[in-house]
Amino acid sequence: MDHCSLNCVNYSQAVCHKFKRFQLAQATEMMFDRLNYMKTACIERFATWFAYHLSNFQFKWSWEDWSECIHQDAELPKAKFCKETFQKCLRLSYHQRILDNVPETFQPLLPFRPAPHYKYEKEGAGSLPGTMAAHQLIASIKAKCTPEEAIQCLRELKNPLMDEDDEPSYNPLKIDVFVSTLLNLGHKSFSHSFAAMAKFHYVFRSLAEHEDAQICILNTMYEVWSTNQQRMVVLIDKMLKTQIVEPSAVANWIFSEKMSQDLNSFYVWEILHSTIKKMNKHVNKLQTEFEEAQDKLDAAERKAREMDEEDYDRDPEAPTEERVERMEETLEAAQGQQKNLFLIIFQRFIIILTNHLAHCESESIDHNTAWYKWIIERLQQVFLMVTSVVFITAVTVKYEDNI
What we know:
Blueprint: H1 8-18, H2 21-33, H3 40-56, H4 77-92, H5 95-101, H6 131-142, H7 147-154, H8 172-185, H9 190-199, H10 201-207, H11 211-225, H12 229-241, H13 247-254, H14 266-306, H15 321-363, H16 370-402
Helix pairs in contact: 3-4, 6-7, 6-8, 8-11, 9-12, 11-12, 11-13, 12-14, 13-14, 13-15, 14-15, 14-16, 15-16
């Protein structure tokens, strides 16, 4: 895996220098044969390395030797490995090149062409309730409208939730029209997407103040980019950084019914792991800043007590007590978000696993399926990621309860 940090030329030279080609091929074949006994994390790393390896050798491989996986259940390790490897290859090349170098017999495992799906320009779009507003929004954005003018394009869209709730907290039709239109217009590159999101950040925040609305944004993004996993990973990362969506919304979206068919896809767990890491990093940063500010304040107060009031010259860099209190409040709020994120994740794991066990029991079938293996090992993987934070949180909660 260390070779993955090298460029293409250096990687090829390093492989040729350290191994004979047949030795590396033989080792890869042995690992492929043992996929049924590998942990999920190992399979994921193997797929990541193998895709990188293929990209350095023109995607050439003796694919026919692995043809057994074509007819297997897509959830079984060998079929899943090949499918996920092709998805990783797509990030390192382009779709047609993958098709040209992989036998047609592997078609069921190959990724779809990564293109946006914009329903408001498809055949039959005239019958959709948001089509006219979508076309008006396209024209306005191309004419370099302001965020406020973009909101005006959506003002006539009726809220489909009005029949269910007297005062709905968000309008899913407005979100669908705005997000799908903006992502489609910015489909040419990541830079185009980021620029569009930055310019209309105010609109995102206006439409999605609550978690349900943020999940609606993620659902719309999925509809537009369901054939491009890398695009979804990058867009969600950007949405988290710019606070368009909260970590808890991402977690709830991942475990939602809409994402159930993709739950075992590697990119979904890439998104969840990235979300957890971002939340932990944010809390650690606030914790460090608060502790440093508290130390400076304590030092300033000690110095003030040791010196006469007339001789004391306060350090201008020392924070005030009010500032430290605000920093503590911000830290506590972030820790609350972190705790809520972990609670959501583990609750959703419990729910889906309980439902699976109940279904298997009612149907009198073995619960130890390929799906169950993936999910239970993902639970172990997530728990290992956050075990230290969860332990500290549990101790804190127990301490507070005793008080």
